[in-house]
Amino acid sequence: MNRFVIVGIVACLALAAGAGRAADAPKAPASAAPVAGRDLASEVRASERAFAKTMADRNLASFGDYVAEEGVFFGGKGPLRGRAAVVAAWTRLFQDKEAPFSWEPETVEVLPSGTLALTSGPVHDPKGALIGTFNSIWRLEPDGRWRVVFDRGCEVCAPEKKP
After folding, report:
1. What is the model's pTM?
2. Is the CATH number of domain 35-155 3.30.420.40?
3. What share of the chain is helix, strand, coil (3-state, %, to 5)?
4. Do residues 130 and 124 lie in contact, with contact meaning Cβ atoms separated by under 8 Å?
5. Helix (H, G, I), strand (E, B) or coil at 114
6. What's the CA gap between 39 and 120, in Å, rounded?
7. Euclidean distance between CA atoms 150 and 12, whole angstroms
8. Which of 39, 44, 109, 163 has the lowest tally of Cβ within 10 angstroms?
9. pLDDT in tens, 107-150
């Protein structure tokens, strides 16, 4: 009988330890919008293109709708933290009649969880010259929309001159 009691206690302890580890395990992020059966890469690409169109259309209010409330944009003077700071800093880029630059997604990758995505691509000046590359991280928000949580651009380096 003692053998059965010991085996029972060991089994209960093993189950309790396993349950404790499961409770401590990281949980998959909850998404209000179901992602099964959706072409998430196409959604993100379309969101990036619509975001870029806000610059072409000179629509600052719509631009702000694509930035997550806690979004961080990196620039020459350090990171801009939060939608309000990003929109305030980018206001000057929307003042002229012509957009100072344009961009287009070339690369789109979405995590298997369907909650985060990366877009990257060229940035062109108004005459079409390549002036940089952008990299953005998008998050699927609870309202079902993709919004930028991180954005960083970099200038194109001039090619080395051969002797």
Report:
1. 0.75
2. no
3. 35, 30, 35
4. yes
5. coil
6. 18
7. 46
8. 163
9. 999 999 999 999 999 999 999 999 999 999 999 999 999 999 99
